[in-house]
Please model this.
Amino acid sequence: MKLLQSIILSIAVIISASDRNDHKKELIMSQTEWAIALHGGAGTISRDIPDTLKEQYYSGLNEALEVGEAVLRDGGTALDAVEQVVRNLEDNPLFNAGKGSVFTSEGKHELDAAIMDGSTLTAGALTGLTTVKNPVSLARIVMEESRHIFFSGEGAEEFANQTNVERVENDYFHTERRYQQWQRTQEDTRLNRSSDIDDKNHKYGTVGAVAMDRKGNLAAATSTGGMTNKQFGRVGDVPIIGSGTFANHVAAISATGWGEQIMRNVSANTIANYMEFNNESLENAMSFVLTERLDPGDAGFIGVDAAGNISMQMNTAGMYRASLNSHGHRVVRIWVDE
Ligand code: ASP
Model:
């Protein structure tokens, strides 16, 4: 009997050792080589949107994801991936960035964008652009060619004059959908109804991307038309490095939502610091900012850490979002509980 018991025990030990080895192998094999996440804005997204519009959103998110995948799969940099993805989303009129940007209170479009390279902590940002078709690419030029980080308004346009970036008339950014949205907001403001800048029911639509490349470098980029009916010269969180956009050796983060709230809490940087200082996961750090620093309805974040882990969380009803990694794990979602 004793002999039988010891034979069974030895077999169990051998099996569990080989399990451990398999597990180790799995761990080695499962190292994420690259990862990308993107968003097209967070906020109150009605479940009743027509199926055709829903499909347009899903296909827009998928298309942008493919752009990022093509860069990273072929060994491109995280920086190239986030720039190309955000450019694609800027050109898509569904989203509030580039074409399709919201209207200011004066009936114009003023665009903000930022990009950051986590491997060098270099960054480029712009606010109040009025004629640059793809603000994210100008932000990259600021990052790479200027000795400054952040240009605003006339200075930002002047900086653009010294580059070859594509220029457009301000009404290029105009779309009927955003125009109607602005008209409704103006009407609400006139009637003292609360759909203005501090309204939690506001629909957002900023775009952003974060990525980790095959070398393990991280990058983040965000681009926006800001908030509907925003006042002259209002600057949101997006171009404020550390608020709406941040990347270092720990994580790359892009935010969307109520800019004033995101800025107050220096949100993107707080997520990365919380991870570093507390040795915490991206998931927990993001959830800390969303639940302990921000109020319900304020914001959504996408992030990737140095191991390629992705997190996309929000305290709004939804966030247009998508992600993909080198294992082929793909997520494309709109609502919080999807
Ligand atoms: N965060 C942006 C801003 O306040 C708006 C958005 O995310 O849609 O400018």
